[in-house]
Amino acid sequence: VPKISDYGLVGDCRSAALVSRYGSIDWLCWPRFDSPSIFAAILDREKGGYWSISPVGPCQFHRAYVRETNVLQTEFICPTGRATLTDLMPVAPEEFKHRHMLPDHQLLRQVVCSEGELELQIDFCPRAGYGAQRVKIRDLGACGLRLDVGRGAYWLRSSVPLPPPTEGIHTRVILQRGDELQFALSYAEEAPSILPVLGEPVRTAIDRSIQWWQEWAGKSNYRGPYRDAVTRSALVLKLMAYAPSGAIVAAPTTSLPERIGDNLNWDYRYCWLRDASLTIRALLGLGYVHEAESFLTWLLHATRLTQPELRILYTLYGEIAPREKELEHLGGYRDSLPVRVGNGARAQLQLDVYGEVIDASAQYARRMGRFDRSTQDVLIGLGKYVARNWNLPDEGIWEPRSGGRNHTHSRLSCWMALQRLLDLEENGILQGVPRQAFARERDRIREQIERRAWNETLESYVSVLDGDEVDATLLRIPWCGFEAAHSERMKRTYRRVQEHLGTGDGLLYRYTRQPQEGAFGICCFWAVEYLALGGGTLEQAHRRFARLLDYGNDLGLFAEEVDPESGEAMGNFPQAFTHIGLISGALTLEEQAHQRASSAAPAEASAATKELKR
Amino acid sequence: MNWGSWLLWGFAATIILTTISAVAQGLGLTRMNLPYMLGTMFTPDRDRARLYGFGVHVVFGWIFSLIYVLLFQALGAAGWWRGLVFGLIHASFVLVMVVSLLPGLHPRMASEQQGPTAQNMLEPPGFLALHYGVQTPLAIVVSHAVFGTILGAFYHLK
């Protein structure tokens, strides 16, 4: 079974596929991220289904995305020849889609032999419903092969004749220099479906997709030293955004384990408001306003029935996420059981969500300078809810499923929610804010955090009120604007977090828990931000950031967690949360560098003036 | 000929036929989307195709209902069972004749023999439109039977 970091991701902002380093598509759900899979070999090699195109015999595999795109290229370097496999889900501008017929969902695979000769083994083994159903493949002659699954139909077209299909296709093809092999797999729930056309249209679709992604990536306004990593993260986040509704999934996969062989396996193919808000904030920081608008529209729609109360996660169309269930027929990634679909956290109370949603909205408003009346009403409604309920115990950001507690981070987020709303009112962006009530509750939260979240014995802020343990969310205190990073309390808290949660080279666990999971990706980047915001020096922050970049895979993709011993990726992959942390860290480093440069400039100017006067 | 009754019940029967087709698609009985299929004769734009196709389908429905009405007039009687029989004949005609001629009639439909091209990319329906789902013939028969029954039951001869 390939390592989690052996996978790359291709997608079209509607669904995504994991492609292994060895040319096998081991995860694909159509038509949506949260639909049942047609390939799920990553969760069970035998039963899950896969589509592999790989050379026969010994070979080296090199892979990379085409620059600033989500078009993946895998180079097969064999003793007898070389070939390049290109994998993508084609994308196109909206105006192009209005003028041309394109399949609803399509995966293109093209192999071009560039040197010598090599033999490819092609295995197409679809299994519907997370591997539960075998699929009958019908040969419809010139139209291709059709797979009827539930209410939809898959079509496979190939530029070479395929053997008569049974429940799978297994064949070998010899390619010589200059030969080209094309496959297109499409899916539609509506007939007549649009059949993929091979040949020049595939080559054009690849070029068009490359151009589309590069134009999108080119809109980023980040000009700092980590351009490649930041752009890759933005491209990953863009893949997680479900274009038809504006929702953003936490990850495109389910049940990749947080501990190999253990049961910490969850379905992340839903929209967590917290993660989505953080994603929007990261993309906004890079200048992507359209994505923020789409998400805010989705948010207003999705939460309409429960406002001002927010659920923590929704489906892509704003429905309640399905109940959690276990797929007993699947063996799990490296025997990590159970494999789950749906999510049991759907009924949890997590008060930090309000702060994240309001902060993302505030960041949007700072750029756009206004909100329409209904958005203002929603935000004020959320603020009122926070003012009434901030004192409740909740499940907190880490969703431990151990009942409600008074989490410091949740209080901090509630404080941030009220503070941001008061700021928006002061700047004339929000009208009708109950200023006195919000300010009173904000101050009460502050007083409670300062008094009960500080542990004198430990000399640190702690993860729950009156508690004696730390967690990595405490590093967010300066970022939220609650307390300066260079304050004595924060410096001591940072030291304590490092002592209790630090592991490996710049890595952090998210909390103390035995047996430990992997180091948590986004928490590692929070430490960078803490240092950049004044908890340390910019140089320290840069060094730490650069070290963390090494924990991504060769394509620059990060999982939820990292095994501190092996450096191996753990948990669902790729994970929006970690990429959000990366972008946020890079942006904070850049902002702080600018701030220090601009504050240093007047100081230098005044020193120069004094020198002149002397 | 009762023009008012034809206009009213021809329209109503067409809308109900379209609704039954949409429900059948929504329930997963068939993948066939009639308005979409008709609309793509005129535009490659999906959203517009559905809109245009809906309009074309209503007009076609009215025209076909006129044939039903003329037959009722010729027989000197309507009645639900006569309408039902006409509807079943109509469904058989659509399934056997129209469907088989469709790849030749539809400017964007691929032929089974040559496969899709850059201009003709739409999946052909196959025998009895079975490519669009094994229960597609059933959906077509039921929707047309209801179409005929409504016309037969509610059309008043003058």
Question: How do the helices and strands line up, and which of them pair or pack?
Answer:
The complex is a heterodimer of chains A (614) and B (158).
Chain A: E1 7-11, E2 16-20, E3 24-29, E4 37-39, E5 50-55, E6 60-65, E7 72-77, E8 81-88, H1 94-99, E9 105-125, H2 128-131, E10 133-134, E11 137-139, E12 145-149, E13 152-158, E14 169-176, E15 180-188, H3 200-218, H4 227-240, E16 241-242, E17 247-248, E18 271-272, H5 273-285, H6 289-302, E19 313-314, E20 325-326, E21 340-341, H7 352-368, H8 373-389, H9 408-426, H10 435-452, E22 454-455, E23 460-461, H11 477-480, H12 488-501, E24 502-503, E25 507-508, E26 519-520, H13 521-535, H14 538-549, E27 561-562, E28 569-570, H15 576-613
Antiparallel strand pairs in A: 1-2, 2-3, 3-4, 3-5, 5-9, 6-7, 7-8, 8-9, 9-14, 9-15, 11-12, 12-13, 13-15, 16-17, 18-19, 20-21, 22-23, 24-25, 26-27, 27-28
Chain B: H1 3-26, H2 34-39, H3 46-75, H4 80-105, H5 136-154
Helix pairs in contact in B: 1-3, 1-5, 4-5
- Shape call of chain B: elongated
Structural class of chain A: alpha+beta
Task: Give the biggest beta sheet of chain B.
Answer: none
**Percent of residues in β-strands of chain A:** 15-25%
Helical content of chain A stands at: 25-40%
Task: Give Rg of chain A in angstroms.
Answer: 25 Å
Structural class of chain B: mainly alpha
The whole-number mean of residue pLDDT values of chain A reads 93
Residue runs with pLDDT of under 50 for 5 or more positions of chain A:
none
Oligomeric form: heterodimer
Q: Main beta sheet of chain A, described?
A: 14 strands, antiparallel
Determine the number of helices of chain B (DSSP H or I, runs of at least 4 residues).
Answer: 5
Low-confidence region ranges of chain B: none
What's the Cα radius of gyration of chain B? Answer: 16 Å
Give the end-to-end Cα distance of chain B, rounded to a whole number of Å. 6 Å
